[in-house]
Amino acid sequence: MANFRGPFFIKINYHSDFAPHAMQIPIRDYTPPFIGFSSGAIIGWDDTLNDADAMITSLVSLFLPFFGTGVTFDNYLIYHQALDTDPAVPQFSNSLTAMVGTVSPSGWDKATQMTSTWRSTTFGLMKLVFLDFASEGDFGKIQTLPGSGALFNLDADLTGVSNGWKAQDNGQPLTFISATKTLNEKLRRSYRET
């Protein structure tokens, strides 16, 4: 089903100096904990069994260069939601340890938003939204994937066939489209910024 986060997705909770935030990322398939996989297994696109905790913490570590030192990633939950109308049922959760943004100084980072977008193998979209990200004073749109650096590394993880990240149209993330940076007006109002 297009634009449906299930049947499995993860919710990553994090906080900045200004507010708590969360992001949801669909995953291809998940098997609850069993021998050799104490956090369960996320199924990769090549049918690799990935230790869920290892795959998630590896991805979160790639988020850190996009955030200032005032941002901490706290924990994650894995959910099952069979149908869009069904409730999301937690399957597993764990804390994230020592996952703190690495940019210092970070420039403007209050009420900022970075949205990175990929095209999937079934022509849908996958988006990652970072709130209170470290702008370092640069709000220019990125339309070409750099040949190295933080965005290059993030792309390699999200599009890797052995990983099980998924777009909401059930396709595998495949092609980087863009990364846009802006001020989030809802957060600005929430933070009472003028």
Quick overview of this protein structure:
The protein has 194 residues and is of the alpha+beta class.
Walk me through the structure.
With 194 residues, the chain is an alpha+beta fold. It has one domain. The protein contains 3 helices and 10 strands. The protein has a 4-stranded antiparallel β-sheet with strand order 2-1-6-7, with helices on one face. A 3-stranded antiparallel β-sheet has the order 3-4-5. The N and C termini lie far apart (41 Å).
Mean pLDDT across all residues, rounded?
A: 94
Number of strands: 10
Strand % is 25-35%
The oligomeric state of the chains shown is single chain
The helicity comes to 10-25%
The helix count comes to 3
Largest sheet: spatial strand order: 2-1-6-7
Order of H and E elements:
EEEEEHEEEEHEH
Comma- or semicolon-separated keywords:
3-stranded antiparallel β-sheet; alpha+beta
